[in-house]
Amino acid sequence: MKGYLTLLLLMVIIVGTVSAQHQQPWCGVTTLFFQHNASTSPAGYEELINYPSGNPEVDESITITNANGWVLVDSYITPEGALDETIEDLAGLRRYKFFSYVSSNVGTTQFNFTPSKRAADGTETVFYSAISEDINSLTPDEYLLSHVSQTSLMLNPGDRIVIKVYVKTTHSSPITVHWLYQGSTNTSHVESGYFVCEEFQEQNSLVPAGLLFAFIGGLIGTIVLSRRGLGK
Fold first, then answer.
1. I need a surface site. Which of 161, 175, 189, 232 has the fewest CB within 10 A?
2. What residues make up the domain containing 160?
């Protein structure tokens, strides 16, 4: 009987391990949300997280003219250690869904989303830049931007993804541009490429958790019947 219980305990541990390995949130295609948090380390960055926080909506504005060129609105960074299990962000489609409006729709006003890889030593390597269509709505509106990355991004433990948001206008008079995020209505976000997690892929090739649960169920039934003298 003790042998049965030992085997049962071992199987439960294996199931728990395999089940946990199926829940790695930064593997595969991930939706990244722009999050207002000025206390993020390193200083000067806000958060880039993989869930909608539901915190109050943020409406940031910046006033520019055509003489300013690209002006930084915000810099966002993934949490420390979030990508330590990932080895690559595959080439392919990135989809930005963001919300904005302007004080004047004269001229052309655009956003520029520039992701980078930030190494543990602070070195940042630009991955690509994606430039939006003209932002011409005078009230909060939704904009979609699709960008196809031609190359994959290799990742090492300690690396983090940074997305810097810039804006510019061709209008010679001052124009105020609004960038909306967080909240439950105008929640700007981006759908990443496919994050490859080597361990996750290898572990998923093990015995499926469902099969292990079925085996354990049968084992428990056998033990119960045996104790009742019916398992002959």
1. 232
2. 51-199
